[in-house]
Structure formats: structure tokens, C-alpha cells
Amino acid sequence: MTFAENPTEFPVTIDADKCIADKGCTVCIDVCPLDVLRVDPQTGKAHMRYDECWYCLPCELDCPTQAVRVSIPYLLR
Ligand code: SF4
Ligand code: SF4
């Protein structure tokens, strides 16, 4: 799997101000079937670790603070 290198092009972005991973939340990480999300040890917040995504949306829908945004490519909509 490709490491996610360029944050501006990630399919999934996480608003660090809203994310409460530093308080123990791992919902988005747990629900992702591709296992591409992680808690960033530097920030304590969730982030996209691997640049792979099925655009299946449970990470966005289940986040208790609406911190996750999945950008679905135009051709998949
Ligand atoms: S579900 Fe939301 S609040 Fe919880 S770790 Fe993921 S982005 Fe952060
Ligand atoms: S949209 Fe699906 S595959 Fe993509 S990060 Fe969220 S849960 Fe994982």
C-alpha cells in the first residue's frame, strides 16, 4: 500500500481541531475496512496513513465529532 505523502491530495481529511483521538476515540480507525487510518503519534489525532480508500464512508458517518471528510472523486459519484 502507498504511504499517504501529500495531505492536500488525500481522499480522507480529518479536522484536527474536532478530532478527539487524543481522548481515546478510535472509531474511524476501527470501522475502516482497509485499515488505512491511524492515530498520528506526533499530534495525537487521527490521520490518513495509507493512500488507499474505497469511499465507503463509515469513517465519516460514524465519527462522533464530524471531523472526517471523505472527498469522493467526481467519476465515482
Ligand atoms: S472517529 Fe472522529 S474523533 Fe474519533 S478518532 Fe476518528 S476523526 Fe477522531
Ligand atoms: S471511506 Fe472507507 S476505505 Fe476510505 S478511509 Fe473511510 S472507511 Fe476507510
User: Structural class, from helix and strand content?
Assistant: alpha+beta
Order of helices and strands: EHEEHE
User: Biggest β-sheet: count, sense, barrel?
Assistant: 2 strands, antiparallel
Cα distance spanning the termini = 24 Å
- Portion of residues within helices: 10-25%
CATH class: Alpha Beta
CATH topology: Alpha-Beta Plaits
Q: What Rg do the Cα atoms give?
A: 12 Å
- Overall pLDDT metric: 92
Tell me the fraction of residues in β-strands, as a range: 15-25%
Tell me the quaternary state. Answer: single chain
CATH-scheme architecture? 2-Layer Sandwich
> How many domains, as an integer?
1
The general outline is globular
Q: What is the helix tally?
A: 2
Are there runs of 5+ residues with pLDDT below 50, and where?
Answer: none
Strand order of the largest sheet: 1-4
Bound molecules: iron/sulfur cluster
Tell me the number of strands.
Answer: 4
Short description:
Pfam families: Fer4_7. The protein is an alpha+beta fold and 77 residues long. Helix content is 13%, strand content 16%.
What does this structure look like?
With 77 residues, the chain is an alpha+beta fold. Helices cover 13% and strands 16% of the residues. The chain is globular, with a radius of gyration of 12 Å. The chain has 2 helices and 4 strands, in the order E-H-E-E-H-E. The chain has a single domain (7-71), classed as Alpha-Beta Plaits, CATH 3.30.70. A two-stranded antiparallel sheet has the order 1-4.
